[in-house]
Design goal:
The structure is a homodimer of 393-residue chains.
Chain A: E1 4-14, H1 22-28, E2 33-38, H2 42-45, H3 48-58, E3 62-66, H4 75-88, E4 92-97, H5 99-112, E5 134-138, E6 150-155, E7 160-165, E8 173-176, H6 186-204, H7 212-234, H8 239-253, H9 266-278, H10 282-297, H11 302-312, H12 322-339, H13 346-349, H14 356-362, H15 381-391
Parallel strand pairs in A: 1-8, 2-3, 2-4, 4-5, 5-8
Antiparallel strand pairs in A: 6-7
Helix pairs in contact in A: 1-3, 4-5, 6-7, 6-8, 6-10, 7-8, 9-10, 10-12, 10-15, 11-12, 14-15
């Protein structure tokens, strides 16, 4: 178990009707002029934006709105948000939506109080030193951005998708009403569940030894998310399944299940290239990359992959051939992904075989010293290419 | 799943040598004069207090000391601490020790800035509205007080043990070096592990339905704590086992595994009377009370107790007779407690049969409306008496 520092100061307000608390929460934090930042028109049509506005007005809080956040949120809208916020004297940013609205809001919040170009934070030219207070009304379970220290933005001109890790990325509050996810199409629920699982698996497949407690927290969380996802894609109105997914999304990515471990996040880096190039849903991209990554990496630690198979999918342990158990776990995971309607091949995703070398080459090298990608199972460009070729079946 | 609000702002600094960070953490919080509050001489003899003092002095932070905290910490020392802190102009309280030192420090921190008698907070005459910033250097895994919202103090003159729940009870930071627990006697390690498990079980045995995610987090945490406890009582120098126990103590009692559930804490109330009357270790008291409580309550929800048996102790499910599985789980838990050297009967604890009616009558009624004790499985005085008689074997 590794040494660690851990602090998640975000306040969670969870349950039916929670969005009605948003005015009180912002007033308690001293916010006077709020930028409400959201995605498509569904948040308006469903009446959610109206309820949020009413909750602010009930506390005497002024607001301006900026909609139009897309999946894989773009820098262009972030620039617009920063300009609008400065012009209007905004002192609090409120994301209403999922990971895209939240990440776009984080970037706006940091950008408001930075003299340079906010993209500096994403291309490592600068680290944010302060931010504008921001909060979240979550409408879907997926990215975990409602309390994670991460934020991912795509530069529209180059289709470069880059992440920023910073403690400043933790929202002041996250308001989480599982009912708000009930109107999502099953495909989007499935994408979200896949993202949640991927966040856990990026932590679970570690090279760190003696991490029994967090192993078991990861395994328990994965089992619950798998069970809830199967229910929610069939019946999006199932409150309890949506509730497990929504809280699951939070703990999957705020390190509740990941402290003291070496995490990997290589699959996330590969996926970032897929969704930047083809504009596919992040979860769908992960559904394709992760099983291929597992098939490629399992030989480096067969017993860990066997443990995944036995404890998460309750596969029988083959004590004579642990690699067969490891493989059975990957197959069970693929069967789950298919069951909830996810693609598991590049073809299903609409990706082209001829793009593979470029995708592999472009994948960000997270380890600068040896130019590899991934924390626990580092990959060179040729490893990434091999993984993409496994996915190209 | 119930609606909930959850916020744990405590910063955790975990791992080898973490105590050397204490000066930097307090300086970052603006502390200038620290009350170092601890228990017996072992913290002095081991050199820990000296290292803490050196870490403060390296940052130019002044300090005064107050040792002598006992297990089941007394109000008398709290009064002394409040007076000393006021006289010396203390602006930060630092607990060095386990749950007793931390709880005593919490009470002192609240008392410093309260004009009345701090006991008002424990007998429900007042709620604390502010406190003095305080932090923790943890030396044992048990109470979880390093980030919980609870605090328990015993009034020496009446031997009344009372708890205070308040968000103000969350420390600013918790410095957690598992090496510091390596010098504890195995009996104390076992008491700590029993307390950790009890904190999880008080949440696990719920009447709330559809709590699969937190069920599984509870089960995973229990399995890891059981495994680590068996190792640590045999070899207290096993860093990894101590590390699982130490982080386990934290997540067991800060609601990481308990959000959205109805918890019980009836066993804790019964135990408070045992340790107040006989001054036994809290963990040892829980080892006696909990199995008896389970034997008495299992009939009210056989399937939940069977789930505990199957998922935590890997008992075979008897589908025709689930109550046999439930009982097997309780027996497995008793066998575990015996294995780590805990008592499981009142006699082993030194308690007297003739005290049972008074113990039952004195147990705090947590539900004022119907004068019962416990959240999920409420007990009248006669239920408590029956449970104590089961423990009196």
């Amino acid at each position: 178990m590794k040494n660690f520092t851990y602090q998640v100061p975000t306040k969670f307000v969870f349950g039916r009707g929670a969005e009605n608390e948003v005015g009180r929460e912002i007033r308690a934090l001293g916010g006077k002029k709020v930028l409400i930042h959201y995605g498509g028109g569904s948040a308006v049509r469903s009446g959610l934006i109206g309820r949020v506005q009413a909750a602010l007005e009930a506390e005497g809080i002024a607001h301006v709105e900026l909609g139009g956040v897309q999946p894989n949120p773009r820098d262009t809208l972030v620039y617009q948000g920063i300009e609008l916020a400065r012009r209007e004297g905004v002192d609090f940013v409120l994301a209403v939506g999922g990971g895209s609205a939240i990440d776009s809001s984080k970037a706006i919040a940091h950008g408001i109080c930075y003299d340079g170009d906010f993209w500096d934070f994403f291309c490592r030219k600068a680290q944010p030193e302060r931010t504008t207070p921001f909060g979240v009304v979550l409408t879907m379970a997926a990215a975990g951005s409602e309390s994670s220290n991460s934020c991912v933005i795509t530069q529209a001109s180059t289709l470069t998708k880059r992440g920023l890790s910073s403690e400043l990325n933790r929202p002041k509050f996250a308001i989480m009403n599982p009912e708000l996810a009930m109107t999502l199409p099953p495909y989007q629920i499935a994408c979200g569940a896949t993202d949640i699982l991927a966040h856990i698996m990026e932590r679970y497949f570690t090279c760190e030894k003696e991490v029994d407690l967090t192993d078991r927290l990861c395994e328990g969380a994965m089992q619950a998310v798998i069970r809830a996802a199967r229910i929610a894609v069939r019946n999006p109105k199932d409150y309890d399944a949506q509730a497990q997914l929504m809280w699951g999304s939070t703990i999957a990515h705020n390190d509740t299940v990941g402290v003291g471990r070496v995490s990997d996040f290589g699959s996330h880096q590969i996926e970032h290239e897929l969704s930047a190039l083809y504009d596919v849903a992040h979860g769908a991209g992960l559904a394709v990359v992760f099983p291929a990554w597992m098939r490629y990496q399992m030989h480096k630690d067969v017993m860990r992959f066997a443990q995944f198979a036995v404890r998460v999918y309750r596969c029988d342990m083959d004590f004579e051939h642990p690699e067969r158990t490891a493989l059975a776990g990957i197959e069970a995971h693929e069967a789950f992904l298919k069951d909830i309607g996810m693609p598991i091949t590049l073809k299903e995703l609409g990706a082209r075989t001829e793009d593979i070398p470029a995708l592999a080459a472009k994948t960000k090298k997270t380890n600068l010293a040896d130019q590899t990608t991934g924390g626990a199972f580092p990959m060179k460009t040729e490893d990434i290419e091999a993984i993409l070729r496994i996915a190209d079946r």
